[in-house]
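Chapter review: from sequence to fold.
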Amino acid sequence: MKSFRQELWFETKTRRAFINITPDVAKAVAKSGVSEGLVLCNAMHITASVFINDNESGLHQDFEKWLEKLAPEKPYDQYAHNGYEDNADAHLKRQVMGREVVVAITSGQLDLGPWEQIFYGEFDGRRRKRVLIKVIGE
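The token string follows.
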């Protein structure tokens, strides 16, 4: 069995962002030499997410509005966590959007559905964060 590890690094200019990382994950799979197996992608920070959905800007705007209704950023003093940092909402948003995804690799390609893409979700940006890509298989 082969194993391959790579990290993607991000530093968004905004507090929140959705970044399509599908091409980066596909490149890592190709570099791994695995033709049949699995790829795990996970956010290595507790205020970021990796998820699969459609690459449609209106949907991303809907995510932003929906998440802000569930866990509004302000007022900061509504959260017991906020003190040293003002990012309690980012922790909650990450819980909703998830930590990781696992995708099958078939014939050396990501085996995604017709509209599925892999995204990095940032909820407390403006600092350097990473995503782990781990490929295993034959």
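Two observations follow directly from the output. The mean pLDDT is 97. Strands lie at 2-10, 17-20, 36-43, 48-54, 100-106, 109-110, 116-122, 129-137.
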